[in-house]
Amino acid sequence: MRKLVTLLLVLLTLGAYAQDRGGDQKEVIIEKLDEVVVTSGVIDVAKERETPIAVSTISAQEVQLKTGNLEFPEIMNKTPGVYATKQGGGYGDSRISLRGFDQRNTSFLINGQPVNDMENGWVYWSNWAGLTDVASGIQIQRGLGASKLAVPSVGGTVSIFTKSAELEQGGSFYQLMGNDGYSKSTVSYNTGVNDNGWATSFLLTKWSGNGYIYNTSG
């Protein structure tokens, strides 16, 4: 009987201890953490003397100087490792090769967004004819470069950057004429910064021509 009473006392003691432990576990400690912002640098820009890759940069002034009646890929034609041609002769039929690799193995980014066709990797420059008027710079990375995107960039990466909205109000108009009936008219207007801090820029371009390839007639 004494052993039974002793056993019951031990069990009651253990039960009370277990209840106390359970009460301690119910206490929730709340600690407020600082806000965490996760960002990703989509636009891959090689830094001179820092990024270990061969890179060439074409400024906005050089783009305007070299354009004339050329197509956008032909602006990069005198850059080391680049070969561009009009191919079929029609506007938008250009193709470009980088380090001997065609457009299927070269990554083309506009403001960090890939524009290669998802099925065959080709770039249809007829869809981007207006880049010559809005490009603020071109960076050509030869070989596997600093791109963080899963793109076919064995030949290299061509990053194209566009202009932002102008802060001052104003506009412009210019007319360009060339051989083989080439004509291009461009009108632009900038609203400037309004009271809400917004600015908008408009640009309208119309071109026409018969097309031309060197060493051909007609």
Descriptive keywords:
single chain; 218 residues; alpha+beta; five-stranded mixed sheet; 3 helices; 10 strands; 28% strand; globular; disordered N terminus
Structure description:
- This protein is an alpha+beta fold and 218 residues long.
- The longest helix has 24 residues.
- The protein has three helices and ten strands, in the order H-E-H-E-E-E-E-H-E-E-E-E-E.
- The strands form three sheets. A five-stranded mixed beta sheet has the order 1-6-7-4-5.
- Strand 8 and strand 9 form a beta hairpin.
- The N and C termini lie far apart (122 Å).
Which residues form runs of ≥5 with pLDDT under 50? 1-23
Biggest beta sheet summary: 5 strands, mixed
Strand order of the largest sheet: 1-6-7-4-5
Proportion of residues in β-strands: 25-35%
Round the mean pLDDT to the nearest integer and report it.
Answer: 75
Q: Can you count the helices?
A: 3
Going by helix content, strand content and strand pairing, the class is: alpha+beta
CA distance, first residue to last residue: 122 Å
Globally, the shape reads globular
N to C succession of SSEs: HEHEEEEHEEEEE
Indicate the radius of gyration in whole angstroms: 32 Å
Helical fraction equals: 10-25%
Q: Could you give the count of β-strands?
A: 10
Quick recap:
The protein has 218 residues and is an alpha+beta fold. 17% of the residues lie in helices and 28% in strands. Mean pLDDT is 75; it is low at 1-23.
